[in-house]
Amino acid sequence: MSLGAKISNTGLSLSWEQTAIAFQRERAAEGMILGAAIAESLAIPRNGVSKWTALRVFGRSPLGFQYVPGLAIPGENTHALLMTMQAIFQSRADHRIFGKSLKKRIGLYRTARVLGHAKDRLTNSGLLGGATKPDYGGVISNPLIRAAAVSLLVQGAAHARSWLEQSNQCTANVELSAGPAMLIAQSMQIAQLYEADQLNGPMILQCLIDSSDYPALKSQLELLAGYVAKRYSVAKVAKRLGYSNGVPRKLDAIALLSVYAWVRHLNRFRLAVERASLLGGECASVAAIAGALSGASLGKKSIPPEWRKALRLYPYNREWIQNVILRVKDWPHGVEDIQAAHSEPSYPIGQLTRNVGIGCFQLVHTMIRIPTMVLPKKRIRKPKS
Q: Residue 228: which of 255, 253, 264 has the closest Cα?
């Protein structure tokens, strides 16, 4: 158990001054990366379409890797996670340098993803059916998955909020993203500092409620605490929150459903990511964050071996990932100690090649979905007043 992390009768003790010991950092870093990548790979074919359309085209659980049949090919959430870790390693313990490095990496990624950038611009304008204006407009996903990486690496930091703000400024409205990003950061702290068998859903949610400085978010977390006590499914909670046919591109919705999928299936990685993947809408983001939290809490052993074997993180190989994990494990983990860590090489040409290939797969999946436009839509009952 980590220093300063004690479980009381009323819940968890959580503060930014707590630090995890080496084996916890290794478990959490490895689980976070693999969990996010595998979960996003499962959800990415369904991302951006309604829940019912996804069920027609891709079926129900048990889920398999369908974006590239038989292979786990993650999307932008996973690469945002890896970019964030690299930018922190390059920061020399200065959050301003971190912000500049991350912004540069995102800019390069945007340049290498022309097709996806055009699609995002059309979606944000409403021409492709975007029902609500998104809280974020970056082509490298939302800032919530980056908050998970910041939280895991920058421990013992009295000014951790500054690191999150630097991340948020890259692709999101800082005012709207502050609360959801902090929620994911605090959730990752719990996932890293405590063993899964020491936790339960109501305990985690109560800790998050007590730690939140955002009244609107706190009231939503109180609702989730009631739902988890009643053992509501992830789909039922999404419906109660008003997202019965897909998760909108709103950071608070993504954050709340990610946390709920994690705490509802606290000891079952497979169930947490499958239930998140079936939500439709921005389900890839929800699944990736839920997978990161679940993987960090349970470790690599919780992820089915057949899923791990199918994972491809090109242009990064398994040795690269293992070296990143060792960087996290080996340094003592205070902010000043980031100066002792160096980053692994970035492979811009390989990243460009990967993005071109992903653009082709996106085109294929867009064509797969076209026939669903002529199918009758599921009628959604309006709630009684």
A: 264
Residues composing the chain: 385
Q: What is the pTM of this model?
A: 0.87
pLDDT-derived band of residue 376, with 50, 70 and 90 as boundaries? low
Q: Are 292 and 218 in contact (CB under 8 A)?
A: no
Long-range CB contacts (within 8 A, 24+) of 123-131: 123/48, 123/249, 130/249, 131/248
User: With bands split at pLDDT 50, 70 and 90, how would you rate the model's confidence at 89?
Assistant: confident
- Domain ranges in the chain are 16-374
Where does residue 359 rank: exposed (0-12), middle (13-18), buried (19+ CB within 10 A)? middle
Q: Residues 265-311: pLDDT tens digits?
A: 999 999 999 999 999 999 999 999 999 999 999 999 999 999 999 99
pLDDT digits (tens, 9 = 90+) for 153-163: 887 555 678 88
State the Cα–Cα distance between residues 86 and 70, nearest whole angstrom. Answer: 29
37 contacts 78 by C-beta, under 8 angstroms = yes
- In angstroms, rounded to a whole number, what is the distance separating the alpha carbons of residues 109 and 102? 11
* Fold category of 16-374 in CATH: ADP-ribosylglycohydrolase fold (1.10.4080)
**Chain centroid, CA 32 distance in Å:** 9
Residue with tokens 């899923």: 307
Q: Is the pLDDT of residue 37 over 80?
A: yes
What gap in Å lies between CA 285 and CA 142, rounded to an integer?
Answer: 8
Among 91, 87, 66, smallest CA distance to 140 is for: 87
Q: Please, what sign has the CA dihedral across residues 326, 328, 333, 336?
A: positive
